[in-house]
Design goal:
Layout (H helix, E strand, L loop, with lengths): L1 H9 L25 H13 L5 H10 L8 E9 L2 E13 L12 E6 L5 H13 L16 E6 L21 H21 L20 H13 L1 H8 L5 H10 L35
Parallel strand pairs: 3-4
Antiparallel strand pairs: 1-2, 2-3
Helix pairs in contact: 1-2, 4-5, 6-8
């Protein structure tokens, strides 16, 4: 499949598979073989219909929809400190629907930019932004092997190439790197939020905020337990502000977890300092 796409676009045969530039991503029924002959026969048509306009992106987003309720597509422009006169573009599409829970699951995402970014920086940027976006959503609590999130940069807009200092904190990176990291994180969070209401059978969009946790990972672990709790989900579906179910999920979250033991003399969850509130998104009074 990759070989045929590359040969069609480049107009030459590819003998070395290591030189292939096409990336195949897929979700679907486990164990069901792809109709490879049908796919190969349509590659020339798909390639000839490729383009860079909004309509081309929207067509591609529609094409990957299966049980999705709506196509997920987003774009924005931005500038970088080193070249404020250049307007860069960031565009992305995604699909999910079912089996969504960190880490990702049956979720596909493609994000492209015309900024110049080194491969090492691309990887580091994507890992950091994905960790606080797609890896923070949950629909049904199940995971699968078929997930892909790709970040591509062709440098067509020009300007300085964004480089990175490997395994260094954001504060030690270049201004361009730090700026793009913030832009990419906000962009992926917006894309990830569109996955949740598109979930199979989803009727509610709920954001869980954990405050006072000694570490971010401990807070994420507690939030994940609340999001996966069937009792919490049924209460939310029935519009029943049953705070006891949330507290129970919080308590259960630390059983058989890396945070089950006290960290020194500090407990992760302190019962007398624990409270729950519900904040409706329609502006009505907090519960």
């Amino acid at each position: 499949m990759c070989k045929q796409v590359d040969e069609y676009l480049d107009g030459a045969e590819k003998d070395d598979e290591k030189l292939l530039k096409t990336l195949v991503i897929s979700t679907g029924v486990i164990g069901q073989r792809l109709p490879i002959k049908k796919i190969l026969s349509k590659i020339p048509e798909a390639c000839s219909n490729a383009g860079s306009t909004h309509d081309h992106w929207l067509s591609g987003t529609h094409a990957i929809c299966t049980t999705d309720i709506f196509p997920i597509l987003k774009s924005r422009t931005f500038t970088l400190p080193s070249s404020p006169e250049i307007t860069y573009t960031l565009a992305g599409m995604a699909k999910g629907s079912g089996m969504i829970h960190p880490n990702m699951a049956t979720l596909l995402g493609i994000v492209c930019t015309d900024a110049a970014i080194s491969p090492e920086a691309l990887h580091q940027l994507l890992v950091s932004s994905n960790d606080v976006s797609f890896n923070y959503i949950s629909v049904d609590g199940d995971m699968l092997t078929n997930d892909t999130l790709a970040l591509l940069a062709n440098g067509e807009a020009g300007g300085q190439e964004i480089l990175c200092k490997p395994d260094s904190p954001l504060t030690s990176q270049s201004p361009d790197y730090s700026t793009f990291q913030t832009i990419l994180t906000d962009f992926l969070i917006d894309l990830a939020k569109l996955i949740v209401p598109d979930g199979e059978g989803a009727t509610k969009f709920v954001t869980i905020h954990i405050t006072g946790s000694p570490t971010r990972l401990a807070g994420k672990h507690i939030a994940s337990a609340i999001a996966r709790s069937p009792l919490v989900k049924t209460a939310l579906y029935g519009k029943d502000a049953n705070w006891c179910r949330i507290l129970t999920a919080m308590g259960c979250s630390l059983v058989d977890s890396p945070y089950s033991e006290r960290q020194g003399e500090k407990r992760i969850i302190i019962p007398e300092m624990t409270s729950v509130s519900f904040v409706p998104m329609d502006g009505s009074q907090e519960l």
